């Protein structure tokens, strides 16, 4: 299947927007030394509450905070610049699914800090699905650093 | 394609498409960094303006040396907690803590107990008029390392020569008689609140403490709570301006909170030394409810004003050091638990301090005087925070602390006008707990935890504030110094509580004579008789 320029541009735009979102989140946390995920983890609900509360423990929270900042900024960097974007998409999906199951929009669970109404599907899940789309289209062969070092088997056709 | 300019092996178009992400990345980086740094700078400016330091608590000293031999008087609910912080948990408690841990992996009570520092104490004596309690202590604490004896009366324990210090966790009417006897014998005392049950013994106890070399401490453990230490600094920096009104509250709506404690099935005239329980209280025949739910009667307890207002009064007094109110007016009634009790379950106490000021940001002399309102119900547990209302800012105080600038503040006028301070958003917050509320097991526990009466934080770790308070007392015994809640603080707490009780019972204002250091007499009444009379009100 060959994609039109418009189709290619649309997926690239999608990648840049998600990349911006990740990168900006990572950078604001990086520049705020007092930021910690402790409160977020402690407010977890649903079947994996125990797991996220465990991650908020004194000994481990520092590492979790570091990994979260590194993950957000790194994934955002790769998506914006357009290299290793398949790996970045997979990492982003995993990170978003962690956020999703820490506060899942399941019936009967309190939804903390959400501005809309959600049932099973929320923005974390949609953004994860968005990253799956990006994973399926090798857009960095079309727009991104990888274009300069492109490998033929990943090129858009 | 063939006409396109090329740079080395890349065409211009390819180069643009390859590197166009870089300026986008730069923009996101710049936007994220600059907004975060600007926000932090603003926040830093406000903090510099306020200059609040969450003062590090004075560390209590070494526990080295000979073990302090402690006797516990009253091994009931509170007594067993106090003994636990000394390092002695009953087998029952350990079993129940293990069970709690099985159902809730985040219940840290057992872990905290096991990790607690050894305070180098021997528990050598127990007094309890209920055989079941005394035997529980004997069975749990008689070990190779610790020999404990049961004494029938407190005087036998004090005179035994086997105790250096006693912890008093009895009904209120026994606090002062026991504390006075111990101090006279040179035995150190830790007594639960309220310090005394009537006015006369308040003075007698003050005299005994003054004449004794023994260390005397009252169990207001919140003085160890970090948020209260921070609040002291807030006041000393005059962040709030002139505080004209303070409201503190009791909000409870459960049986335990209304002192409807369990009646033990082994309670009988054979297992309870009834006459000893009564002591100086009016003689009545054996009554299980009076024994287990003694807080419901003036004969043994002190009602809301002595039992719970004392916590709130001392929470404010440790921050403001305002002392005894000039006048007190109380009202209320038995509106939620009409079950034969004669202490009120709804009570409002207005305490006036017309000559007191926390400081002012306005013209000298304009502001002076403050009212402290204690408002309590045992029929609703909607959480009302303690609030200190100043001309410049409002402080909400509990285990955490928040300060909001007042829109009409003089001190913050400029910062509010130029948008640096938003009165809707706290200008200072201290919350060490985040949402760490494990181990809080009942509505009453939650009530105490919110008030900073159960837990505090040291170096990011949760610590039992009672443990720190007991440790401070033991440190003063060993190393010298002064307990944070000693006889003067206890005296102020007790007199204020008694003024509240008197005002409620007599239905009139009760005044304090600062010069004479006494409650102004009310014609026609013996105030101690009024306070001790086992009736709801004197009409």
SSE order and pairing:
The complex is a heterodimer of chains A (157) and B (539).
Chain A: H1 5-30, H2 38-42, H3 49-55, H4 61-81, H5 85-102, H6 123-136, H7 145-148
Helix pairs in contact in A: 1-4, 1-6, 4-5, 5-6
Chain B: E1 6-7, E2 10-11, H1 12-19, H2 21-50, E3 68-73, H3 77-85, H4 91-103, H5 109-115, E4 121-127, H6 131-141, E5 149-150, H7 154-159, E6 165-168, H8 175-184, E7 188-191, H9 199-211, E8 216-218, H10 226-236, E9 243-251, H11 274-278, H12 288-292, H13 303-307, H14 309-320, E10 327-333, E11 346-353, E12 370-377, E13 386-390, E14 393-397, E15 401-405, H15 413-417, E16 428-430, H16 443-450, E17 455-458, E18 461-464, H17 465-479, H18 487-506, E19 510-513, E20 518-519, H19 527-532
Parallel strand pairs in B: 3-4, 3-6, 4-5, 6-7, 7-8, 9-12
Antiparallel strand pairs in B: 1-2, 9-13, 10-11, 10-19, 11-12, 13-14, 14-15, 15-16, 17-18, 19-20
Describe this structure in words.
- The complex is a heterodimer of chains A (about 160) and B (about 550).
- In chain A, α1 (about 5-30) packs across α6 and α5 (about 85-100) runs antiparallel to α6 (about 125-135).
- Chain A has helices at about 5-30, 40, 50-55, 60-80, 85-100, 125-135, 145-150.
- Chain A has about 160 residues and is mainly α.
- Chain A is about 60% helix and about 0% strand.
- The model of chain A is unreliable at about 150-155 (pLDDT under 50).
- With about 550 residues, chain B is of the alpha/beta class.
- Helix content of chain B is about 35%, strand content about 15%.
- Chain B has 19 helices and 20 strands.
- In chain B, the strands form four sheets. A ten-stranded mixed β-sheet of chain B has the order 16-15-14-13-9-12-11-10-19-20. In chain B, strands 5-4-3-6-7-8 form a six-stranded parallel β-sheet, with helices on both faces. Chain B has a two-stranded antiparallel ribbon with strand order 1-2.
- In chain B, α14 packs across α18 (about 485-505).
- Residues about 435-440 of chain B have low confidence and may be disordered.
- The interface of A and B includes residues 30, 31, 43 and 143 of A.
């Amino acid at each position: 299947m060959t994609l039109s320029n418009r189709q290619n541009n649309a997926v690239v735009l999608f990648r840049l927007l998600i990349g911006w979102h990740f990168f900006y989140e990572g950078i604001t946390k990086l520049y705020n030394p007092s930021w910690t995920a402790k409160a977020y983890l402690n407010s977890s609900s649903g079947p994996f509450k125990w797991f996220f509360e465990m991650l908020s423990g004194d000994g481990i929270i520092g590492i979790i905070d570091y990994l979260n900042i590194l993950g957000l900024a790194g994934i955002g960097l790769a998506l914006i610049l357009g290299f290793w974007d398949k790996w970045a998409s997979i990492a982003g999906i995993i990170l978003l699914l962690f956020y999703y199951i820490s506060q899942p929009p399941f019936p009967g669970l309190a939804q903390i800090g959400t501005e809309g109404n959600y049932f099973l599907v929320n923005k974390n899940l949609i953004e994860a699905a968005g990253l799956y789309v990006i994973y399926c289209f090798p857009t960095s062969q079309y727009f991104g650093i990888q274009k300069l070092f492109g490998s033929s088997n990943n090129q858009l056709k | 394609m063939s006409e396109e300019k090329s740079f080395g092996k890349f065409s211009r178009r390819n180069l643009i498409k390859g590197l166009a992400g870089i300026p986008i990345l730069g923009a996101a980086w710049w936007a994220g960094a600059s907004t975060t740094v600007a926000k932090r700078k603003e926040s830093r400016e406000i903090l510099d303006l306020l200059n609040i330091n969450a003062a590090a608590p004075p560390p209590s000293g070494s526990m080295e040396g000979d073990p302090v031999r402690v006797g516990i008087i009253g091994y009931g609910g509170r007594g067993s907690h106090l003994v636990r912080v000394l390092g002695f948990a009953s087998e029952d408690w350990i079993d129940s803590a293990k069970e709690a841990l099985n159902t809730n992996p985040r219940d840290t009570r057992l872990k905290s107990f096991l990790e607690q520092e050894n305070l180098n104490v021997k528990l050598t004596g127990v007094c309890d008029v209920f055989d079941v309690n005394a035997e529980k202590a004997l069975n749990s604490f008689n070990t190779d390392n610790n020999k404990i004896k049961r004494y029938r009366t407190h005087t036998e324990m004090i005179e035994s020569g086997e105790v250096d210090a006693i912890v008093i966790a009895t009904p209120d009417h026994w606090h002062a008689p026991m504390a006075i006897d111990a101090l006279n014998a040179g035995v150190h005392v830790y007594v639960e609140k309220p310090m005394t049950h009537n006015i006369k013994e308040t003075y007698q106890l003050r005299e005994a403490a003054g004449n004794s070399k023994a260390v005397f401490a009252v169990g207001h453990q919140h003085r160890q709570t970090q948020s209260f230490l921070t609040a002291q600094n807030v006041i000393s920096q005059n962040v709030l301006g002139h505080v004209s009104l303070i409201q503190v509250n009791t909000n409870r709506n459960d049986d335990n909170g209304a002192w409807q404690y369990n009646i033990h099935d082994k309670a009988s005239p054979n297992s309870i030394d009834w006459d000893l329980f009564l002591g100086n209280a009016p003689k009545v025949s054996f009554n299980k409810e009076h024994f287990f739910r003694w807080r419901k009667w003036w004969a043994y307890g002190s009602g809301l004003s002595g039992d719970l207002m004392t916590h709130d009064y001392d929470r404010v007094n440790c921050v403001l050091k305002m002392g005894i109110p000039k006048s007190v007016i109380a009202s209320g009634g038995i509106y939620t638990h009409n079950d034969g009790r004669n202490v009120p379950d709804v009570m409002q106490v207005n305490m006036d301090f017309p000559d007191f000021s926390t400081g002012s940001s306005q013209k000298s002399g304009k502001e002076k005087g403050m009212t402290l309102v204690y408002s309590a119900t045992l029929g609703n547990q909607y959480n009302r925070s303690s609030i200190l209302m100043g001309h410049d800012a409002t402080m909400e105080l509990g285990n955490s602390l928040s300060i909001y600038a007042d829109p009409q503040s003089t001190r913050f006028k400029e910062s509010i006008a130029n948008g640096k301070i938003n009165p809707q958003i706290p200008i200072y917050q201290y919350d060490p707990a985040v949402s760490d509320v494990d181990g809080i097991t009942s509505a009453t526990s939650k009530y105490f935890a919110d008030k900073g009466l159960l837990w505090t934080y040291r170096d990011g770790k949760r610590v039992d504030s009672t443990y720190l308070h007991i440790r401070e007392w033991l440190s003063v015994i060993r190393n010298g110094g002064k307990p944070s809640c000693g006889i003067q603080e206890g005296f102020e707490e007790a007199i204020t509580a008694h003024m509240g009780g008197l005002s409620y019972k007599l239905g009139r204002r009760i005044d304090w004579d600062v010069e004479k250091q006494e409650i102004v007499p009310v014609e026609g009444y013996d105030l101690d008789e009024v306070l001790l009379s086992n009736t709801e009100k004197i009409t």
